[in-house]
Amino acid sequence: MGNRDTQTGLQILDRRTALARVTIGLYLVSWALVLLVQLAEAVGVYDFETAPESVSLMVVGLVLLLAALVSLASFVVIGIWIYRAHANLWSASGEGLQFKPGWAIGWYFIPIANLFKPFQAMRELSASSHGYADRYGDAPQGELPSWWAGWIAGNALSMVSLRIAGIGGEASTPVTDGIDALSTVCMLASAWFLLKIIEEVNRAQQTSLGVQETFA
Fold this sequence. Notes:
- By secondary structure, the protein is mostly helical.
- It contains seven helices and no strands.
- It starts with 13 loop residues before the first helix and ends with a helix.
């Protein structure tokens, strides 16, 4: 997907960025619907756990299924985008880079390291794409801290909710509903900031790496 310069290996990210924009948009919409369900449960308007078999229950189930499928699709699309964006840096020079394309994705699956390595990789991608050295203070952080804070907070809150539910059972449902809703808000914010990062890196690579000129 996308045009490639056979000599430099650079590849325009426009199509991948457009696909990421679509999947993140679907992610935002589907999880906003999930948030409405969570809020309805949290305030007692709707109880998904005890609701009778009905059309409303089926709709809620479909919303949750849609959100799960969209999440999976967005993870794949964004993972491919991250890999290709890092590969462009290595094709352009690779000088001074720490994170190879494969590990920019792989660190997400390594316990403990996945708390900070993916952020460092994305920071290097953003800084190098803009022509900055990847050192604190050398490049503007932009949406990077907000993106990662939302991601970490959202996942942490989700795990806390599961732990509380395991300990407290049904009695803890009002608490876990509220925590789940807050987790979703954090993840939605993270997705929004990630979209901004993706678009900024795409524009920066067209300028700093000369990708756009390569295929003009």
